[in-house]
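All the exercises in this workshop are built on plain-text protein records. Instead of coordinates, the fold is spelled out as a row of discrete tokens. Once this layout is familiar, the rest of the handout is easier to follow. The record below serves as our worked example for the rest of this section.
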Amino acid sequence: MDYMDIWNKLKQPPTSALKKITGGRLAGKTDINPQWRYQAMTEVFGVCGRGWKYTIDKLWTEPAPAGEVFAFAQISVYIREDSGEWSAPIPGIGGSMLVESEKSGLHSNDEAYKMATTDALSVALKMLGVAADIYAGKFDGSKYDTPAEKKKPDKKAPANKEPDVPMSPGASAPPGDKISEDQGKRMFAISQGAKIPTESLKLFLMHFYGFEHSKDITKAKYKEICEILMDRAKFDSIMKTISK
């Protein structure tokens, strides 16, 4: 049995399904059309409901600072085995904003649960290899990255560089949309003071905000993230939703 057969069939989306994100916290990354994911699954496994399916296992909300509200969805994807039986569940958790703060005040999103479900499906389908080359950074819609093209590490960089994390709530935001390195270090000190493990902090930033590194954090989310990290009880409550 070739265990990579399904993965290889699903790993590269066509350029028509890709769109470069030009604004917001994910600027520079590639957005994948959800409809392509479902088409790819249908091509490999068959019609949804017969060759593959998903269930919505849980929908819930979590409060956020400044009156905002997160919406979360937990789903399970199943594929039809050769025996005709359904596979073990492939879980996925996704999130969106149900109530979000804007310049004019709080704004409610009536599609928040749908967006959270779409996000959760993308997480689960990654496990089967759907759009794997995009997530692995091997393909951006125009060309593949080869080992020769990858940037060589900076030999001058310190060996024990502090983890990329966000900034301190008392620091002023730097020019532009992103935070400074010094602010990231100050936030790291605050997280350490709250005894938040570095890996938990990274998971929190990536899962709920899409920030992979401290340099990705925006001024718009700066104060909100800091307030959560300074309240260990609130942080722990939010993190429990990942494993529910």
